[in-house]
Amino acid sequence: MSTESDSDVKDELARKRLIELASEFYDQFAEGTVPEMEIPTRTKSNIVFDEKKDVWVYGDRTSTRSANSVRGAQKLLKAIYTIEFLAEQLDQDRSSTLRELYYLSESWDEERAQFNDQDESNQLVEDLEIVSEVTREDFHMRPEESGATIMGPLFLREQTRRGERDIHCQEDVGEGGYQIPNNPDTIEFLDHDADFVLCVETGGMRDRLVENGFDEEYNVIVVHLKGQPARATRRITRRLHDELELPVVVFCDGDPWSYRIYASVSYGSIKSAHLSEYLATPAAEYVGIQPVDIVNYDLPTDPLSDSDINALESELDDPRFQSDYWREQIELQLDIGKKAEQQALASRGLDFVTDTYLPERLGEMGVL
Amino acid sequence: MSTESDSDVKDELARKRLIELASEFYDQFAEGTVPEMEIPTRTKSNIVFDEKKDVWVYGDRTSTRSANSVRGAQKLLKAIYTIEFLAEQLDQDRSSTLRELYYLSESWDEERAQFNDQDESNQLVEDLEIVSEVTREDFHMRPEESGATIMGPLFLREQTRRGERDIHCQEDVGEGGYQIPNNPDTIEFLDHDADFVLCVETGGMRDRLVENGFDEEYNVIVVHLKGQPARATRRITRRLHDELELPVVVFCDGDPWSYRIYASVSYGSIKSAHLSEYLATPAAEYVGIQPVDIVNYDLPTDPLSDSDINALESELDDPRFQSDYWREQIELQLDIGKKAEQQALASRGLDFVTDTYLPERLGEMGVL
């Protein structure tokens, strides 16, 4: 059970790691060496598959942030100020957004430590995550709220600043569902009656599944991804899989951007490959819309745009899409030159998705 | 109290209006006249202030949709098919999204009744709203979910397809708050302990207010607008004002796009001026960020872009921004050439917004 003191221990650990990092810089100074910080290069060409953990992680290539130039020294100065702010935030059990951190730097006495733009502060926080091996959530850095929700036979306890809240994600929520908090590690799963987890890209389809009672009929936890899913959404999906031992399937539009949504749930994103083990659900499978569904179900389509074609071709080079399945689907899509949205299933009637398409696909996949 | 039979009566009324509309076409045919449908012109130049209702509504200029051309006849044919679909949907107590309607039209037997694109079906549904005086929500047409939320001392009952849900928007929800359903008229307010309603543009600021306990300290219902607010968000804001007799204030970024967010809450939007009386809260006041705050509080700013300047200049022509207050603020902003985000208040510390800025502004406005 997650208790007050558990979270205190976690905060203290995060704080300790940050301070260790600062003392490394101190030691480097003391030894007379130029302080530096080495981090993995974060590009598509530097992600490798970790067979043991079953996720994509950064490879061996690294970049060095060194104080051997004025620019580099300023970067480390900014890191030190940020570490001080984060350590204080943890000590006081406060939290803040990435945007607030950027603005807050304007209040720092040393002008050269202030951030020039938010990209700079965002990147620094990611660097600190990688080097300290503590997640941003454990630094108490909140993202902008994403609005993603859960609906399904799941009873959970959320640890809020105002005390514990016990919530059943069908019986205690409105039609909008349970709002996933910024840090889903404040959630403990108390009980459930679910057979699998269905992650859904669009709100329109999420509402359709809920209206048609799909979550009740098939004992499904419906997670609304809301487009490219926030870290909180990916994290809770991973936890639903790990802790409740539930299969996870992902239901998106049938276009290259949606395959990337699936990839970020399943394989981890390139930008946060240092967190793949924490955020990705390697066992997550893709339900559709598959290019082959466009053909088999004769769905209404739009032609592929130039940027769609480029994105598909780039996926053929993406290490995450090297399976026979994905090569086949992507090549088929380039061949037919079409894409389809999940809501295009409505062309066969409003119940087609829940009466026919999903039962057929989930049957094929062995989930039902 | 909202009961099963209340909503049945409402559905039956919406259905009746739609069928009346279809029979008007029928009568026009029977009389040997060319069927037509007249609707107000929906542009900035055709909105006028309704002194009685205290909102902006469409003026006298109208456009006619007539069957006197093949194109026009097809438009009316599409209207008839859509009316049939909506009437059936109401009869069966189903609902659907605008996107589903567009795709669904592909299943209609008469090919010429099918929509060419979603703009066409969206516009038709708006036309039907205007002519029938029934809202889209009462046709059971759902928008794509917006993810907007409420946090505050409000106890409500939501009528869901699965029965009633009684939810306190502080005690029964997680940190993410209560998710506003697509049709907030399924909500009944049971009890509250609120002094006013604060609508907030960004998620980062909403989270800041909740973390700092602003809703508890000042008895505030915090409504997260999530950018340009969805109809459901504007509707529930209006109802909180009308039914609970609470002042409503709006807290946004300090840029021309945010003033339009305020305008859509307060005055109604140009696109849905036929619904102003239902969606707009004329008494809603603007807290900030005001251009004068940028000066007074010395906030971190970004320079105005060309499109910002154009938007401000267009607001000087917008009938909704003709008050002395807005002319002054907009002219000041053009003069200083700067804009600031609400989270820029963090440059004065994370508590500045709740300890200083909001209490000062709300005091000046007479809300506190």
TrEMBL record, chains A, B:
Protein's recorded name: Type 2 DNA topoisomerase 6 subunit A
Signal peptide: none
Record organism: Natronomonas aquatica
Cross-referenced PANTHER family: MEIOTIC RECOMBINATION PROTEIN SPO11 (PTHR10848:SF0)
Biological process per Gene Ontology, one example term: DNA topological change
Pfam families named in the record: TOP6A-Spo11_Toprim, Topo_VI_alpha, TP6A_N
Enzyme class per UniProt: isomerase
InterPro entries recorded: Spo11/TopoVI_A, Spo11/TopoVI_A_N, Spo11/TopoVI_A_sf, Topo_VI_alpha, TopoVI_A, TOPRIM_Topo6A/Spo11, WH-like_DNA-bd_sf
Domain Topoisomerase 6 subunit A/Spo11 TOPRIM: 196-362
A GO term for molecular function: magnesium ion binding
